[in-house]
Design brief:
Layout: E1 2-6, E2 15-24, E3 29-37, E4 46-54, E5 60-67, E6 81-88, E7 97-106, H1 118-126, E8 129-133, E9 141-149, E10 152-158, E11 168-171, E12 178-180, E13 190-192, E14 198-203, E15 214-219, E16 226-229
Antiparallel strand pairs: 1-6, 2-5, 2-7, 3-4, 3-6, 8-16, 9-10, 9-15, 10-14, 11-16, 12-15, 13-14
Length: 232
Amino acid sequence: LKQRIEGVEKGNGQNVTLSFWGRTEQADDCILRLIQNFGSGGSTQTNTDSGTIDLTTSWQYFTHTFALPSTSGKTVGTNHFLELEFIFGPATLNSYFDITGVQLEVGSQATDFEQRSFAEELQLCQRYFYPVCPKNISGQSIGMAYYYVNTTLLGIVHYPVTMRATPTITGADVSNYFTTTHNDLMNYLLANRITTTTLEFYNNSQASGTAMQAVIARSNNAEAFIYATAEL
């Protein structure tokens, strides 16, 4: 089980402490690992492991302090990160592991779990992933658009927060998955001029309207989707 954290330099050359609650169905164990990954074109990653953490069938509170190596003298490439790993096992057949309240912080002592509001947590998550058009909602509004010419629909989406990096855009391409308030059915909406704050979308092969006419682009099927992803 892994979680990447932006910036390989975080906590380098210092003690960092992990705290969490954990249990397992059949008294299995796990190892904790911090990986300093220097990104594409960077130095070879450095792993720092804990000893064996003995989980039981009852919830227990665990802490472990790592001495993270310094990144001084290392080559830092692109998309570098610090990664926390829970390495479970060997597990008994059909066993399971539960963890909660995971917190990683600089220092040699664990502090109380930092409880954020749902609104703040959502904004932090949206830096990495934003469903421009989520699945399971037919008729979902995507954004304002207009017919640039009779056969080209052009529109724009503003993300709710600035994304971590220029996102990758993925979407459905199935017959009549998208439409407009002009009832113009289209299989897809292509991405154009993608930035960390906005996405332009267009269709220039199935659109048919009046030049300069304004419309709202929508999904036309519960399986339609457009996702912006900027994960590490």
